[in-house]
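FIELD: query
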Amino acid sequence: MEGFQRLFDVNVRAPFFLTAALLPGMAARGRGSVVNVSTSATTFAIGGGAAYAATKAALESLTRTWAVEFRGTGVRVNAIAPGATVTEGTQALAPDVVDEVGRTSPLGRTASAREIAEAIVFLASPRASYVHGELLFADGGRTIG
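FIELD: result
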């Protein structure tokens, strides 16, 4: 239970309270962008990842709800769903699983943290000015096949 509570605190509570604190100011200024980080594991199952996927699915729901609640304010709310990504954390916890998931994606490899960061920068930038309430999959095509 302690592990689930930590996942919930990091993946749901922290974004909830941070966004609740920042969105009103963004709306008052008439502009802003929130990009939440989810996971493609909410779309396809990975054994042993139920608690993680459930907390990220909750974050996706918050993203869609905030997009509706703050419509017309100039604030955009989106999320990104990375696939298998090489980071210090993934290499410490489950390097074999991450590598295997990456190999089985249509691109046949894992993502670098920089590749995911570039997608986040895009969503936050003016180049994505008409993107709102969306979940962008950056998973090497894993969710399509």
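FIELD: remark
The domain at 2-144 is CATH 3.40.50.720 (Rossmann fold).
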